[in-house]
Design brief:
about 280 residues, alpha+beta, Alpha-Beta Plaits, 3 domains, four-stranded antiparallel sheet, two-stranded antiparallel ribbon, 10 helices, about 55% helix, elongated
Length: about 280
C-alpha cells in the first residue's frame, strides 16, 4: 500500500509481496517465456565458437632489444612476465599476422585475424598460451599450429638471443567454447522474472483506483466514511446481498411457508373426513 502524507510516500513492502504472490502465475509464465526465448535465440541465431590453444616456452639468458641489452634468470618471474608481454605484442603485429595468414592460406583481414587470436602468460611463468577462436574447430586448430610454427622465427628476428620453444601443439576442439545454452537460458529466465515483477509493481504503484475501505480509513482518518458500494461481482450476484440466492427466501420464511402448507393440508384432510362421515350417515 502506498501512503501519501505531506508529499512523503511510504510503500508497504509486505503489500508489494502480496501483489507478486497474487500474480505468481504471471511471473512463472514470464520465466518460461524468457527462458524459451533465450534458448531459441542462442540455438538458432548465435553461431557456436571453438577454441584451440598452443603453449610456447620462453628461455632467455641474454637478451638484447635494439641497442639495449640485459640478462634475466629463470627465477625472475617478473621479468619473464614482461618478456611474455613483449612476445604477445610481436604476435599481434601486422607483419606477424599477415605471415601467419599467408602460410595458413586464410582470407581473413588483419583486423579479423587479430580479433580471433589472444595470448597470455600461464600463471605468471615463462610459458604463454596462444588461443585461437573460430566458428570452425579445424580452422582454429590450423591457425594455432601455424602460429606455433611462425612465431619463434619472428621473435628471433626482433629480439636477439631469444629462445622460444613449442610446449604443446593445438588439437581440434571437440566441444564449443561458447555460447552456453544453460547460462543463457538461466539468464533469460531471470530477466523474464525481473521484468514481470517490475511491471506488476509499477502497475500497482500507479494504480489510482480505490479498492478497499481500509485505504480510506488509514490514509484519511479524519474524514468519516459515509457509505460503501456493495460488491457486484459474479460471486456476489449469485449469493445476493445478504447471502441468499436470488429467487430464494430466507430460511425462516421458507420454514414458515412449509408450516402453512402443512396446516393447509391438514385442514383439507379434516374437511374431507367430515364430508365422508356425513355421506355415510345419510
Amino acid at each position: 500500500m502506498v501512503n501519501n502524507t505531506d508529499n512523503e510516500y511510504e510503500i508497504d513492502l509486505r503489500e508489494l509481496f502480496m501483489v507478486l504472490l497474487r500474480r505468481w502465475w504471471a511471473i512463472v509464465l514470464a520465466i518460461v517465456l524468457g527462458g524459451a526465448a533465450a534458448f531459441g535465440y542462442t540455438y538458432f541465431l548465435v553461431d557456436p565458437l571453438y577454441q584451440a590453444s598452443t603453449l610456447l616456452y620462453v628461455n632467455n639468458s641474454d637478451i638484447s632489444v635494439g641497442a639495449t641489452s640485459f640478462s634475466i634468470s629463470n627465477a625472475d618471474l617478473t621479468a619473464a612476465q614482461k618478456l611474455v608481454d613483449t612476445y604477445v605484442v610481436i604476435l599481434k603485429s601486422r607483419t606477424s599476422l599477415n605471415a601467419i595468414s599467408e602460410k595458413a592460406g586464410l582470407n581473413y583481414s588483419y583486423e579479423t585475424l587479430r580479433s580471433m587470436v589472444s595470448a597470455k602468460a600461464v600463471n605468471s611463468t615463462e610459458v604463454f598460451e596462444v588461443v585461437v577462436t573460430s566458428k570452425d574447430p579445424a580452422e582454429a586448430e590450423k591457425i594455432a599450429n601455424t602460429i606455433a610454427d611462425v612465431l619463434p622465427s619472428k621473435i628471433a628476428d626482433i629480439v636477439v638471443g631469444s629462445d622460444v620453444r613449442i610446449v604443446d601443439y593445438a588439437v581440434v576442439p571437440s566441444h564449443r567454447s561458447s555460447p552456453s545454452y544453460t547460462r543463457n537460458t538461466a539468464t533469460g529466465m531471470l530477466i523474464g522474472a525481473v521484468l514481470m515483477a517490475a511491471i506488476l509493481i509499477l502497475a500497482y504503484l500507479f494504480d489510482e483506483n480505490i479498492r478497499s475501505e481500509d485505504y480510506l480509513t488509514q490514509n484519511y482518518p479524519d474524514i468519516p466514511l459515509l457509505a460503501v458500494i456493495p460488491d457486484m461481482s459474479v460471486s456476489s450476484r449469485r449469493a445476493g446481498y445478504y447471502g441468499y440466492q436470488y429467487g430464494d427466501a430466507p430460511t425462516n420464511t421458507r420454514q414458515a411457508a412449509k408450516q402453512r402448507s402443512r396446516k393447509s393440508d391438514g385442514t383439507s384432510t379434516r374437511k374431507a373426513s367430515e364430508q365422508e362421515v356425513k355421506e355415510n350417515g345419510k
